[in-house]
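Shipment paperwork, digital attachment
Item: protein structure file
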Amino acid sequence: MKIKLLLSIIAPLISNLSFGQANIIDSIVHQTYQRKFTIHTPTGFNALTQRALVINLHGGSGNMLSAQGFSKMNQVADQNNFVVTWPQGYTPASSMVGSGYVWADGRNTLADQAAIDDVGFIDKLIDTLVLNYNIDTTRIYICGFSNGGFMTQRIACQLTDRFAAMASLGSSMDTVLYQTCNPTKPIPMAFFNGTSDPAMPYGGGPMQNPQVTPVVPVDTAVQFWVSHNNCLTTGSVINIPNTFTTDNSTAELYNFTNCDCNADVKFYKLINGGHTWPGVYVAAQASVLGNTNRDINASIELWNFFNAHTLCNTTVGIDEQIIRRTIRIYPNPAKTELYLNISPMDKLEISISNLLGQLFLKTQNQNHLDISNLTDGIYIITITQGQNKITQKFIKE
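Attachment content:
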């Protein structure tokens, strides 16, 4: 009798810990809104084993269900034993049920206009999933497509310390975020962008929706993270084999490595690619969204990138953040000139030295530095404001 009673108590506990492969729709309350999400658990999932988490943000006018078919990431999760969650953005109460949803990515979207706090929503969602699904907090990743990619960039600037790596697809950085972004640490970042994207201008500028903020060129957004992460090595372009010859697109990979905190940057440049998820062809969208590159599968590439990183706890100190809020040093690598977005009112001392400490330049409040007389190599620029000091490496080439 005692054994039967013990089994009757243990059995429900085991069943509560074991989910197996499942798509579970749930919600949490944030800002009085009932915010929905889908959680996909892989085959054999149980809450006794910690697993990595990938947060995947749908594009504008999409939702948490359509994004799963758009990217096919659940299949990759099943094959690699990680958890995926699909949060859902905001839609006005007046919209039709089932219509598209949008993220408050900071570009004056409908969600921005409604004062939706999506950064806070994602932060609270992580807490919920860690508690209920035994998520490994050192292996939390986020990616997003289009509006979801812009949202990922905003989160990268404001909630960096929760993530081990991030990725944006079919998106860039808007011009305001580019000037104000202040991440608290280096963060591994990947970009996937088509050069013929009809919805997201590869070369930057206004979006199709005139109400949203214009964007910077994709190359500029990539270089922002290369510079922020202090990457010192730029590998030559890797021409990915053109295995799918009928997709009217080819792929190039640019790797930026030897970065602080192992925060490498990868850029998949999809020549003649459109506003699509690489590797997943949707015939009905081809005439509107352009070519889908099928030489790579973005979901597989994303997981390979994510899986190579765990959370780096190195953060920028408070004093250093004070300076970094307003200062960017670019370009990096640089050839003849180095720029800083500072003003004479900042009262900054600036010096450039090599790795051995040999001083080559010392000045004050200069936002344009001539480095043409430096030989090619790695240098350190030091910026001092009172008792506060930051240093950053840059490459002269």
